[in-house]
Structure formats: structure tokens, C-alpha cells
Amino acid sequence: MLFLQYLTAGVVTGCFLILATIGFSLTRQVEGFLNIAHAELLGIGAFATWWLNASQGWHILIAGPAAVVFTALIGLGIARTIYDPIRSRGPAVLLITSTGVAFVIGGVIDALVGTGIRTLDIGLATSYKPFGIRITDYQILVVALAAAVSVSLALFLNRTRIGLAIRARAVNPELAASRGVDVATTSRVTWLLSSGLAGLAGVMLAVIATLTTDLPFAQILQILAVAILAGLGSLYTVIASGLIIGIAMDVSVYWIPAGYRPLVAFSIVIIVLLFRSEGLAGRRAA
Amino acid sequence: MTGRDHARVPTQLGSLLEVNGVSKRFAGIQALGGDDGLSFQIDRGSFVGLIGPNGAGKSTLFNLLTGVLPADAGTIVFEGNDITAASSHQRAEHGIGRTFQTPRTFESLTVLDNVVVGATSPGERLRSALGRKWRRHEAGLVEQARDILDQVGLADRASEPVGDLSGGELRMLGVARQLIRRPTLLLLDEPTAGVHPLLQDRLADLLAGLHRQGMTLVVVEHNLHFLLAIAEHILVLTQGRLLAEGPPSHIRGDPAVVSAYLGEDHAA
Amino acid sequence: MNWPQLLITVATIGSIFGVVTLALNLQYARGGMINFGIVAYFAVGAYTYAIITQPPPKGLDQYAFGLDWPWWAGFLLAGIAALGFAALTGWPTLRLRGEYLALTTFAFAEVFHSFLLNERRIGNGTVGLSNVHRPFGDWGPIEEKYVFAGAAALLLIVTLAAFRQLLASPYGRALDAIRDDEVAAQSSGKPSADMRRQVFLISAVPVGLAGAVYAMFTTLAQPSLFTAEVTFVVWIALVLGGERSVYGAMLGAFGLVFFEEVVRALPFETVRSAQIAASVEHIITGVLFIAVLRYQPFDRIQRKVRAST
């Protein structure tokens, strides 16, 4: 029974990781680099929610979406002013620059918010005990949102003109450009989407976690673990990787101390890389 | 073993390179070798021209011979040793040199160093790099490199960064970097493309000189005037298979070759 | 502000981080490898030194090993342990390129960090090892802190001299060739994979030694000293100083340490204002980092200097 309880917790963690990583993976595939600052965008979403909700007294259902929009705009702004001008210098320089961006955002959040635990002005979680396994309504919300986001993103990328254009760019940028895909527009939409998703994950972080200013940076480790494991794959490998890492981390607590959760996550990553250097998805495929 | 094309490039000195049933596919498309793979031999001291339309597999063949790409099937034997599993740098050490279709250079090094780095200096081993013995060797290498730069017409550019060279000059630099290694077998991928006609003549003289000294040369070239004038044996490749082979005079008159390659090339 | 004390701290810590930055410079600017887990090799050096020199466990100690060997044995073994750790981590990762290498080295460092946090038998877990053996006392009239600064500076100078000698040799030229165009370098007989592995291994040695000196100086080996932030700080130092030059890399390390120490030494009335200063320090460091990467002022200066000679 305890095992099943850990498994449930693992699924919830996995769903949160999916929310946190989808945007990161999207940038990785379309823009071609690893945006370390993605985790700090989660921080922006989380603390914007906290400020609007706890200080300004907005209802969470208004504060949350507002924070998502705010994060999306900040993400787009950073991309246009900082990443776009150095695009030609390659993914390594972009990756290193993004750590600088993470430092700046982290510093700004620290300066504005300060240390200590922040809590939202929302009701306490209600627990349910179906089949004897405890699960809270907020945990159910995370799972539902992860499912909803995955489905709507899949529909968007497969059914809409702009979504197809984004996928075309991810698979083959030169070919996409020569076939008339509008690089500027797809890039902006991608940034809005991925940053908005980071914002959404941030809102969820504010809802389910004890919020401190060093929490966002801690997320990058797990996001990276999921992203490396997924490799350059589709949306579906991100979902699978998120669940694998989330479940592995939480179920491992059944046997070994909870402090080893990150070790478990990265051990999986290293083992996978030993056998498949491009992650679960294998080589870049169409 | 039956049914394979077996071409033998005739000289008296015996076989230097044997390619047996080699094939390569890219994403399911056969780039080199038919059902039985590609087989041929190149004899020591020969001067071979390799021609064929675009996409015939000439550069792929070079990449398989030098270990840049692994072959899907078949074996490659060089000087009696099976080098199929050898890595790219090991094949270079064995004596196979090459240039590239698009010139490749080391942009952070000067023109002179781009040639010197072609040689394997004793100071390249970690243990001796911290000592002083390599310095004596170095002077000799620099002198050789200057000689070679003189032969390819780049002597007065020695101390410039490679970024200042033209496309044709970069091509000559690629040849120069291989010459300092004194390879047994030198594979040249389109050495005249973009090279000034005056330099082309100089290149032809240079290659003829190397051939006289006993170096085995295989040259991929679209400039047939250049190639048919200097090569003594021609291999014709189409769609990854050996279409014909023989001396230039024989190839010029071969109707299959003319329709598959020469005609189209002359029309273009 | 106590300037002499501040400057001596900057000289010591700056030298220690200067060594790490030099190693990163060798790996990245010459070897073309992005190591985003450099802190782990530093930590291996620090912990090895602490474990070799500390007395066997007693009382409340949770660590399992303490050899009580002399300081020089701990120092040398710190370098060897870092080399061993580089061999262990390099084996699965070095065939990966660019950002994948960055990610896996990062992952290794995180695994190692969480190992240190949780495995109490190595170094008391989160508490870490304290009272690490400090070898040099006062040397006659010279106070201990000056001896330390001198020792750290000596390590930096020796590392610099060794790297310069190596890079000025045909070995360095071959490395440059491999970084510029690996396929062409191989066709000139350069064993690129072997050479890259060598660079990865030898550059870990001074990092391990620097870790030992850091443990001596702080008398501590705790997980909280060896977080991913150290990696980022060293990367920032490297980029600030201009990644192409060894002197730039060192200057970057000293500049950054100086900046941090000054901010740390500023007197603040309240905890909150000290906190804000620390955040502002992060912001300024980050902005400098982004600006240097974008405008490459040091590369430009270098090019100008080269063009005028």
C-alpha cells in the first residue's frame, strides 16, 4: 500500500515535470539550444502568482492566468533582446548566455521577494482516499493540467498552420525556410508558448510547493534530467521521460533515503546516455 | 564472390589498395556499391582518375577509404593490412592522405602552421610536449612546409591567417598539408575547382612530379581536360557502381561512358 | 573596510579559482569541451585532502575514513583523485558533443553533490568535514595568511607555466587543429578522441590540487561549498576574461572574486539590505556575463593587438 502511495506521488511529480519540461524541450527543438533560464521563468510565474494573489488579493483563478501571460511576455522579451542577436554564434554560446540570464532573473527575484517561505491565499488542500491511496485536489489538478496541456499542444502542433510551421522548423530549419515558413513569426509563437508553459508550471509550483526563492533554480536539475532523457524527441518522449523520472524518484524513497532523489534521476540519465547517446528518442527524426 | 566487377589498374609493382565488396547506404538510399558491393584494386605507383556524375558516390568512396564514414559491408585492404576497422587518424598514419571537396582548414592557425600541422611531430605526444626535444625537429618541419608552400604558389602568404585566402588558394593549401606527410596514397577531391588556370598548370606539374617519385594518386575531377591529360588510368563510377575502367583513350571512346557521363557533362 | 585583509583574501581565493578557470580554459577554448560540472573535480580534491589528512573518526564523527597522513600526501592524492574522477566521468561522456557533454558533466556533478549530501560515511553528509588540517603556520615573521596567499599563487603560476608550455608545443597546435576541424585533423593523423581525453584528464589535476588548497584555506569540506553555483561562477570568470586567452581567464577570476569579496565586506545596517546587495551582485555578474558574450570586447582587443604587431 505504501508502495502504491509512492507510485501515486511519482505520477504527480512526473506530471509536474512534464509541465515544466515541455516548454524547455520546445525551445530546444525549435530554437536549437538549451535555455537554462527556463527554470527561472518558472520562478517568475510562481512569484507573480504569489504577489497578485497574496499581496494584491486577486483570486487564484485570475492571478494564475495573469501570471502565465506575464511570464510568456517576459520570456518573449528576453528572447528578442538577448538571444536573437547572438543566434549566429551557435548553441554553446546561447547555452552559456542563458546561465547569465538565469543569474539575472534569480537575482531580481531575490531582491524583490527576499528569503523566507511564501504561501498563497488559497484554501488548504482537500484529501481524497480512493482505494486507500491519499491524493489531494491540487495533485489531481496537476495531473489534469499536464494531460490537458499535452493534448492541446499535440493538437496545436499537428492541426494548425502555425503549429505545423513550428514543427517543420524543428525538423529541418533550412528546408522550412526555403519552403516559405515564416521564421520570425514561428520563433515568436514558440517563445510565447514555451515561456507561457514555464509560467503555468510556476503557478503549479506556487500551488503545491513551499515557495522559496531558491526553489526555481532547483527545478532546472530535474528539467535537465527529463530533457536529456527525452533527447531530441517528440512531445511523447517528453511525457514518457517526465513520468519515468518522476516515478523513479518518488518510488526510490520506498527503499533509499529521500535525499537520493536527484541522484536517482541523474543515474537514470547517465545509464541511458551510456547506451543511447541521443536520449530515449534516438537520433533526430522527422 | 562471383559476379563482382573486378577492375585491376595495371602496373608492375603490385596492389596497394584493395576494395572488396564495399557498400554504403544513407537513410535507405544506396550511395555506394550495388548488390555485391563495389570492388576494385589500385596498384602501387599508379595515377588514377575517378570520374562520374554528381551523386555517383565519389566523395562517399573517399570517406569510406579514409575512415570518415564506416562502410556497411565489405573490406578495405591497404598495403596488405585490413584497415576496414581502423579509425580515420590511423589510416592517415598508415599513409593514406586526402583533400576534401569543400576545402577544410584550421582557421585559428596561420597558412604556414596549416601546413606544418599536417606532419606528425614528436612534440604532439603529451610526454614529449613538455620537453624540449621536439624543437630541433620543428625547424626541419617549418623548412619543409615553406618549400611546399613555394611549390603550390603560397610562399608569400605563409604568415597570413587562412581567412585571407581565396577558395582556390584554400584548395592548394589542403594539398600542401597532405604533401608534408608524404602519403603513400593521396586522394584528391576536385583539386582544380575554383583554382586559377595558371595555378592549375602548376598543380598538374606538381602531381606529375609526385607520380614520378612513386606516390600513388587517385584524383576525383570534373575538369576532364585536366584529368585525362595527366591520369594514366580512369575509373568511371555511376550510381555507386563501377561502370567502366581503362586508360583515358579507351574511356573517351566508350559509348556507355559517353552516354552516362561525358555527354551529359559536355552538354552542361 | 579592511583593505589589506580584503586584498590578501582576493589574492588567495582568486589564485585558487584562477587555477580552476585555467583548466576550464584549456578544456573549452583549446579542447572544445564544455564542462558544466567542473565543481565536482574541485570537490573531489577538497574531500580527498580532508579525508587523507584528518584523524580517524571518534565520538560523534560519522565519517568512516581518516588516514592522518601528512599534508603533502593529501595534496598529491587530491590531484590524483581528481584525475581518477575525470577518467571515470570522461569515459561515458566524452564521445558526446557540445551541449550533450555540458549536460552530462552537469549531471555527474549533481549526482556527486547529492552523494556527498547523503553519504555520511564519506564526509559527515550535510555537515561536512571541519577543522581540515592547515599545513603552514607562520613562517618566522611572515604571517600564515601571507604564506597561504603565496602557496595559492605558486600553484597558479606553476599551472599557468605548464599549460603555456603545453599549448606552445606541437601538441597545442594539434589541439587547435582538432577544435577547428576535427575531420581534417584526423586526416592529418591527429588522434582527436585520445587527445581530447588527455586534455580532459590532465586539466582535472590542477583543479583537484586547487580543491585541496581551498579545503586547507577554509578548513572546511562541506557540500554547500561545492554547488553548481561554483561551476557557473568559474564559467563567468572565464567568459569575463575572454575565453581565448589564459591571462584573460585569470584576470576574470581575480576580478570576479574581488567583486564578490568587496560586496561581502560592505557594512550593512540590516539583514535585508545585505540580502539585496547579494542579489544585486548576482544581477551585475549576470549582466556582465551576457554583455561580454555578446560584444566580445576582449577578442576585439586581442585582434587589434595582433593586427598592430
Structural description of this entry:
The complex is a heterotrimer of chains A (286), B (268) and C (309). Chain A is mainly alpha-helical and 286 residues long. Chain A has helices at residues 2-30, 38-55, 60-83, 91-113, 137-159, 161-171, 173-178, 183-208, 215-230, 235-252, 261-275; strands at 127-128, 135-136. In chain A, strands 1-2 form a two-stranded antiparallel ribbon. In chain A, helix 1 (2-30) packs antiparallel against helix 8 (183-208), helix 3 packs across helix 8 (183-208) and helix 9 crosses helix 10. The radius of gyration of chain A is 19 Å and the shape is globular. The relative contact order of chain A is 0.19. The mean pLDDT of chain A is 85. Chain B has 268 residues and is of the alpha/beta class. Chain B is built from ten helices and twelve strands. In chain B, strands 1, 2, 3, 4, 6 and 7 form a six-stranded mixed sheet that branches. Chain B has a six-stranded mixed sheet with strand order 8-9-10-5-11-12, with helices on both faces. In chain B, a hairpin with a 2-residue loop joins strand 6 (73-78) and strand 7 (81-82). Chain C is mainly α and 309 residues long. Chain C is built from 13 helices and no strands. In chain C, helix 2 runs parallel beside helix 4 (98-118), helix 2 (38-53) packs across helix 9 (192-218) and helix 3 packs antiparallel against helix 9. The radius of gyration of chain C is 20 Å and the shape is globular. Classes of the chains: A mainly alpha (286), B alpha/beta (268), C mainly alpha (309). Chains in contact: A-C, B-C. Chain A binds chain C through residues 33-34, 82, 85-86, 89, 91-93, 95-97, 99-104, 106-108, 110-111, 114-115, 221, 224-225, 227-228, 257, 259-263, 266-267, 269-270, 273-274, 277-278, and chain C through 34, 92-93, 95-96, 98-100, 102-104, 106-108, 110-111, 114-115, 117-118, 228, 232, 235-236, 239, 272, 275-276, 278-283, 285-287, 289-290, 293-294.
Present the secondary structure layout.
The complex is a heterotrimer of chains A (286), B (268) and C (309).
Chain A: H1 2-30, H2 38-55, H3 60-83, H4 91-113, E1 127-128, E2 135-136, H5 137-159, H6 161-171, H7 173-178, H8 183-208, H9 215-230, H10 235-252, H11 261-275
Antiparallel strand pairs in A: 1-2
Helix pairs in contact in A: 1-5, 1-8, 1-9, 1-10, 2-3, 2-4, 2-8, 2-9, 3-8, 5-6, 6-8, 9-10, 9-11, 10-11
Chain B: E1 7-8, E2 15-26, E3 29-32, E4 38-43, E5 47-51, H1 58-65, E6 73-78, E7 81-82, H2 88-94, E8 96-98, H3 111-116, H4 126-129, H5 134-151, H6 167-179, E9 185-189, H7 197-212, E10 216-220, H8 224-230, E11 233-238, E12 241-246, H9 248-253, H10 255-267
Parallel strand pairs in B: 1-4, 5-10, 5-11, 8-9, 9-10
Antiparallel strand pairs in B: 2-3, 2-4, 2-6, 6-7, 11-12
Chain C: H1 3-30, H2 38-53, H3 71-93, H4 98-118, H5 120-123, H6 144-167, H7 170-180, H8 182-187, H9 192-218, H10 228-240, H11 246-265, H12 271-295, H13 297-308
Helix pairs in contact in C: 1-6, 1-9, 1-10, 1-11, 2-3, 2-4, 2-9, 3-9, 6-9, 10-11, 11-12
